[in-house]
Amino acid sequence: MIEKTAVVMAAGKGTRMQSDLPKILVEVCGRPMIDYVLDALAAGGIERVVAVIGHQADLVKARLEKRPGILFAQQAEQLGTGHAVMAAQHLLTDHESPVLVVAGDAPMMEGDSVAALMAEYERRPAACILGTAHKENPTGLGRILRDINGDFVGIVEEKDASDEQRRITEVNMSYYVFHCGDLLEALGHLRTNNVQGEYYITDCPGVFRDERKEVRALPVLQPHETLGINTLEELAVVEDTMRKRARRDQQR
Fold this sequence. Notes:
Elements: E1 5-10, E2 27-28, E3 31-32, H1 33-43, E4 48-53, H2 57-64, E5 70-74, H3 81-88, E6 99-103, H4 111-123, E7 128-134, E8 143-146, E9 152-156, H5 163-166, E10 170-178, H6 180-187, H7 204-210, E11 215-218, H8 232-251
Helix pairs in contact: 1-4
């Protein structure tokens, strides 16, 4: 049986949340947002979690270290999502596939979505499988590009998208299942030749396509999983959504 591992990017600050806490420890409905992520990963069958920590690392570690199967990697500088995974690669070198990479600030993550992605990998392994969602109003999110056969071509960020591309409703959700060996190789090809001067994990699918390795996009995520938290206003929206869903569940 292949061990299922996730890398959780959890090194960021909570500056835009007007909090001195690391972002992933900011509470959502009374619990740190990372708790929802780790619960969803466990429900989706993930057995080992590598948490990439940075800002106030000791505080994050103290909060999470009693979780079963959790390991920690230190990201001293925050130089992008690809750099976060680079910080964890020493804990992946002896690992057999697959590796799920997700953000630690995604409290709407669903265990069913995680399980569906991992099941798809087991059914038909690939260098990378992206978890995507269809959203009626995809404003601000990267769009998934497909060819006439419906196969994944790439991701275009909204600021770079044409008017036609902006009408695409399938969006990138930053859920990636990688073949571990392919991931580690691709990390060596990432460059910082972008406006932010950072290493982006979103560049990995392009690396794989250049090497003629298979990349697939799977629209198995729910629209509410697109809700992220970067501001206090977005925190209020997520909390309201959580409460409404909890009330619906109680009425069933």
